[in-house]
Amino acid sequence: MTLAREQVRHVAWLARLGLEEGEEEFYAQQLSGILGHIDRLQQLDTEDIPPTAQVVEVINPLRDDVPEPGLDQAEALAGAPAQQDGYFLVKAIQEAEP
Is residue 38 assigned to a domain? Predict the structure, then answer.
């Protein structure tokens, strides 16, 4: 399959690529070669090859979640710079500073 210069300009426009004058012929040859290889690949008999979504086996490298007891309220608040009535006290970010 040979691409015309107009087709190369159209593909470049779709890809938002700016081509200099005379580059259309170069890229037409390059893209036509790529499409030729794709045509050859489409001629292969792949009927007995199972579909593959992932070439390399995917494993989960993370450990299993194991429930553990959390901090109680006093332990959680122990390191807080400010607290009030058993809650963290934080500065409001939308109020003007006095």
Answer: yes
